[in-house]
Design a protein that fits this description.
Structural class: alpha+beta
Strand order of the largest sheet: 3-2-1-4-5
Oligomer: single chain
Radius of gyration: 20 Å
Largest sheet: 5 strands, antiparallel
Distance between the termini: 16 Å
Helix content: 40-55%
Shape: rod-shaped
Strand content: 25-35%
Number of strands: 5
Order of helices and strands: EEEEHHE
């Protein structure tokens, strides 16, 4: 995944780059219920070459890291929902177990959203995404 960032600070072989946070809500963060409270994030990356503060650079994120995050963000809610449906179908003797499992599966999606918000905050603090600086723009 490629993005454009602006070099804010250079400390030896490391640089702090401000990158606009890409989200599904686009630029209308006030209308979004996501946990992103900022329009840009500051990342630390290795720099080699002739870069100066204020330069715009191409930032690349590893595909395998992005794939991991996508799998977590889509797989966790699906897995929780399927576990809830199967559990209710196996445990319940009620004639309305289909309705109960349907309502419970929707509620499980709400629960998984809280789990994913906590995961996102933890990953952003940990800076688990590895960024590499590409060409100067």
């Amino acid at each position: 995944m490629n993005q454009v960032g602006k070099i804010e600070q250079i400390n030896g072989a490391k640089a702090i780059v401000s990158v606009k946070r890409v989200s599904a809500c686009g630029d209308s963060c006030n209308n979004c219920g996501g946990s992103c409270t900022q329009n840009s994030i500051r990342i630390e990356t290795d720099v080699t070459g002739d870069y100066k503060v204020g330069d715009y650079v191409e930032i690349t994120t590893g595909s395998e890291t992005m794939l991991k995050h996508v799998l977590v963000l889509f797989g966790v809610p699906l897995l929780i929902m399927l576990i809830v449906i199967v559990t209710i179908q196996l445990v319940s003797d009620s004639p309305r177990k289909d309705i109960i499992s349907g309502i419970s599966s929707v509620l499980s999606l709400a629960v998984s959203s809280f789990i994913l918000k906590a995961y996102d905050k933890k990953e952003m603090k940990k800076n688990a995404l590895k960024f590499t600086t590409g060409k100067k723009l």
